[in-house]
Specification:
5 strands; mainly beta; elongated
């Protein structure tokens, strides 16, 4: 049996299942010296900012590299 290729799925503008356009996570807004908080490590200070991640000094927990888009990670 040979399968026929499927036709592209139709997306209705009124469908409740339409998805918003994907927005890549970014580190915009973070600068060196900013105070931040992360649910698992607490409060810290930004020491380095890259496009893909932010390096944060959490004091006794040390330096941690936090990927862009991590849930629970925010500026104070």
């Amino acid at each position: 049996m040979i399968r026929q290729p499927r036709a592209p799925r139709r997306v209705l503008p009124t469908s409740p299942f339409t998805r918003a356009e994907y927005v890549a996570p970014s580190t915009d807004g973070f600068v060196v010296g900013s105070r931040v908080t992360l649910d698992s490590w607490g409060m810290g200070r930004v020491t380095e900012v890259k496009k893909e991640y932010v390096v944060v000094d959490f004091g006794s927990a040390g330096l941690r590299r936090i990927p862009a888009g991590t849930k629970g990670f925010s500026l104070l």
